[in-house]
Design brief:
- InterPro entries: ACX-like_C, Hydant_A_N, Hydantoinase_A, Hydantoinase_B, Oxoprolinase-like.
- With 1336 residues, this protein is an alpha+beta fold.
- It is 31% helix and 24% strand.
- Strands 13, 14, 15, 20, 25, 26, 33, 36 and 37 form a nine-stranded mixed beta sheet that branches. It has a seven-stranded antiparallel beta sheet with strand order 39-38-42-41-40-43-44. Strands 3-2-1-4-11-12 form a six-stranded mixed beta sheet, with helices on both faces.
- Helix 12 crosses helix 13.
Amino acid sequence: MSPASYRLGVDVGGTFTDLLLLQEDTGQTWRAKVPSTPEDQSLAVIQGKDQILSNIPNGATVVLNVVNHGTTVGTNTILEQKGAKVALVVTEGYRDILQTRRSQVPGGLASWIIWPKPEPLAPLELTIEAPGRLAPDGTEVRPFNEEVFTETLQGIVEQEPDSVTISLINSFANPIHEQAARRVVAKVLPRTPVSISSEVLPELMEYERTITTVVNSYVEPRISLYLENLLKHLEGKAKHLRILRSDGGLSSVSLASRFPVSWVLSGPAGGVTGVVSVVANQTKFKNLITIDMGGTSTDVALIDNGVPRIRRETKIGDLVVKAPSVDVRTVGAGGGSIARVPEVTKALRVGPESAGAEPGPTCYGKGGSTATVTDANAVLGYLPKYLLGGTFALDIEAAKESVQKVADDLGVGLYEAAEAILKVSNETMYGALRLVSVEQGYDPRDFSLVAFGGAGPLHANAVGKLLRAFPVIIPPSPGVLCAFGDATTLLRHEVGRTFIRVLLETDKSEICDAYEGLLHQVQKIMCEEQGVPESKQNYIYQADFRYNGQAINIPVNVDLHTLEVKGLPYLRDIFEQEHEKLFTYRLSSNVELVNLRVITEETREELPIKKLDKAESPHPPKSLITATTTLVFEGKEFKDCAIWDRAGLKYGHVVHGPCVVTEMDSNTLILPGFQAEIDAVGNILIYESEGKMVSVGADKELDMATVDIFESALANARAEMDALMTRTTMSPAIREQQDEFNVIAEPSGKMIVGQFGSFIPGFLDMWEGTIEPGDVFLTNDPYSVAGAISHHNDWLILTPIFVETKLIAWAANFGHMTDVGGSVPGSLPCAASSVFEEGIQIPVTKIASKGVWNSDLMEVIYRNVRLPEWNRSDVRALVAACEIAGRRMLELYSRFGDRLYFEAIDELLNRNRKAVSSIIKSIPEESTYFEDWIDDDGQGVGPWKVACTMTKIDGRLKFDFTGTDPQSPSSINFYLNINMFKMFVGIYLLVVYDSNVVANDGFHDLFDVYIPKGTLLNPIRPAALSCRTHFLGRLLDVISGLLGQRAPEFMTAAGFSDSPHFMYSGYRQDGSWFQLYWIGFGGIPARPIGDGPDGHCLWPAMKAIPNEFLELYYPLRIEVFNTVADSGGPGLYRGGNAQRIFWRFLEEGEISLHDDRWLSKPWGVLGGEPGARSTKTLVRYSVDAKNPPREAYGSKQDHIKVSNGDILEWVTWGGGGWGDALKRDPSIVALEVRRRLVSVEGARRYGVVLHPDLSVDEEGTGKLRKEMKAVQTRSESAGSRQEIFNRGGSWEELKATCFEETRLPPPRAPWEVALRGPMTMLPYFENWQKEHSRAT
């Protein structure tokens, strides 16, 4: 008889290491849980192995067949920032690729004030540029120069990097330059590991490819050392060691060491594979949604017909890494999540902050004092008094004390507060579960919920009830299920390649040949490096598709035989089926094939799972009740509830709620009205007990938990709308730069979730027709909706939401269309004198009536734009997003009933009102005045002033824009919607005090806004509006300037509040039309919390379009894309640096330029200096390649002719500084010089002198700072009081030096020209004219 064969599954977590030993011939299992050893995690693995083997006969001499290992080592390395010192090699002109990180500030409006920008994993001082350039088709533009690169590389040799990443532009199309650079690095740094992006992620999008490859380099040395140690410890103790990949497959040690980025999320993947093994493979339940709840967070995933869904990117902290992984979504709701009540909003917040392992929940008795989710469970009687098999006593009284503090803050009782904590936490998980189900086109009612992890089974019944996903399943040993998954999963590998083709223009044989090449690659790797012969390999063929113009890639499985038989129509059909499932619609646009891949997995050998003995009766013996508890549920106490010992329960036993099932590593709560059955393999199956549900009916009174749940549900609905828009739209402004804003409003039009204020009241004020179910309204006319949208490119969809004939809500969404017709491509003419030059005007129009579309009308509209397919697609997306909101509001209405639904809305509105009111109370009574300017109107006239006085009267704020200049005859006017302005101010006030708040219109009556008619912010039709972006942005500076003078937490400098536009269009030589609309970014202002980020945008969630995408689809090349040293204003906190973009044009065409701050400077505050100006220079290489003429351009110009080879050098503006630069730490200044964010000469503006090696010259710095301080003191003694705002000079001074400094003539003041328009007959204009006549 051959000896027993064993495999060991190991899951290394941050706190514990879980192990599961499986006997391969019988299915018998043993488990162990040991403390993790962060200093060397292999030690815990060996300790656990030895402990678990001691439980079997002759365990000390057993040689394990295989150790399958999942770990959070990679994840923790990133989160704890304990990875390698990575050097980064990039293409010339791209050194700031990680510094700008696609320019996105996460969060909503004003989040930039409080967002702490993370440091890049590869620091700037270790980033060097490689010579040479490739085009997006892989052809060589400039050759790689080995000699130059070798010399450049010497700059980082002395810094001794631990690893090197090479990521060059367009290397996805051709790896030749990266391979050449690697050969040089191997010569110069022979012992340093190198990762190249064309091997780690050979796909389009330069930032994502770079950060993914940097992550690979960042974790590689630590992981390699870890695996070396583990192999050493296992020598002679195990035949094979395999590592769990993030996609749920296994990898050999050699592959895992080279590509550790492929398993940075192997921990969460283990649990999902465990569910497949224990539930999907052993029961009739194949469609499963999983919830893995630990101490800090909860991971959720979806399994479709026994196969986990895979996504091509994943998020680790602030980083989005493109590597295949089980589609796990993580939310900050774990057992240790802290409950708190912000003073301003008095809303209950649970997570994402966590008590961690130390001190942990209060009931653990380790010194914790803040209430957590675990404490709430303990207070409600859901936990036994002893955990971990009776070895760990809970301090229930301490838990009650901590939860009582929350109760006191909320003004409710102890048990109500505890239940509220759990309900809010459950709602957070519910939202995440919807992301992996509903958002992916799945109905959760067709699935069963599987819960595991230490805390998952406690919440499973309640979450399953929300999701309506039954039965709720609790696998055996849920606390170590990840280790079980590790033990039972299979070896896997995949290879892929970029294959960008329009499907109709592709030959079927070309696709099949490409698959054949990939198949040979993957077969070879599986055979030679994984040890799996071809006879035991199974293959999956995949392709990524999208509609031409989209940026999302939708992966689908391809059947090669069907492709051979049916050809390319088969590929279009399977893509469109998936697109429709995800987004509810199909398009007539061309389909584009983007990537091909082949995935191989070893053939599964069935492992037996040990079955439970069959119970003689469904009623378990009372001897299995280890204790009783008093449970509290929905405010009702249930006494003497059984706590069952799971280890004794048999197949067929049934227990009825309320009760608890306990085991060594977890506890399962069965709620009143539910029952739990034990199946053959030991799963707990929770069902509703017929007729025994505890009713929470319409007679329930509104409580704070319901309000918080409602608020969370609204936020989730809005997130779903955003996700659909950014994934499916064609216009880059929507898709990449997220210039789309949605609103859900109550029936009268008050916004209950959104960001730009409600669009509905302006519509309701003017609409005289009927409003019925199935109606859809469209407008792009600012004058039709009181400025709720502000120019013709913004197309607004509005849909009423009915329950039968009762209107219960509104959904609205607008997005920026790339073109709407008009006098210039892009529809944003700089010189327009009326709206009639700005493209098609669509007054509020019913485009669908009772669900029937007016297709003829829509075709008339599309006929008047240059890119009709894009507009058609984007309108479909806008409508689909509003339909999502409609479904979510109907679900809320059904869930809570009519009375609670409307009471919750009223309370949310009132909550925001009370919060803003309390903030206003802290603002002093004195009036505050602030003014700012747009430099010019593009026609040589300027500056144009916006002025505002803020006054506090009787607990309300009044904003009076008297003093603002009259409307311009050009297109810089901005029709400021009063609700929008109120929303801006409210969000600014709230975000600093409670950044999790869901903004709504509840506080609107606390603000009074007066904008004189006929002014720049309240123009009279038909005043042109197409350049309104500059005043829209400047308004945010005005808000900061007003609030900052009265509340220090809002005192920011000025900076990149604008969104400058660049447009390039024309006909290619092949006769096809191209048209680009692009938004630029620059220096964020310095803030009370620190420096302003470089090359970012403070508009919510906007991000840069990938340059590789632009080069692939437009006739241009972006030669330089970095930031500008010294362009951020010096201060205690430095303003963010500007962005430098060099556009090389490859076809003749026209460009348009929109920006500002070319003459004025973004002001510094409290002693900080202003940021640098913007510049735009066109270098005419088409005229003279050696000595090209250089032409300076102003800020707002159209119809600029460009030719093949010309370069536009565009430098945006920097952010102003905050505080006295002489107080900035000299070592930080020196570091920024080494990072090339500040120059050596620029360091002297901070009073810092450097040695030649760029270290701080302490003596020289002290001397210089003393001299600079003396100048400051003399200036103050002479009566020059330091101004709050440093604008870099008066307008007279700026104009006097204008031509010398900018090579452009100064603009003429508005009162120096003859203004014409309907505003000239108004008294305001007459007074303005008289005032300036006197001044002149």
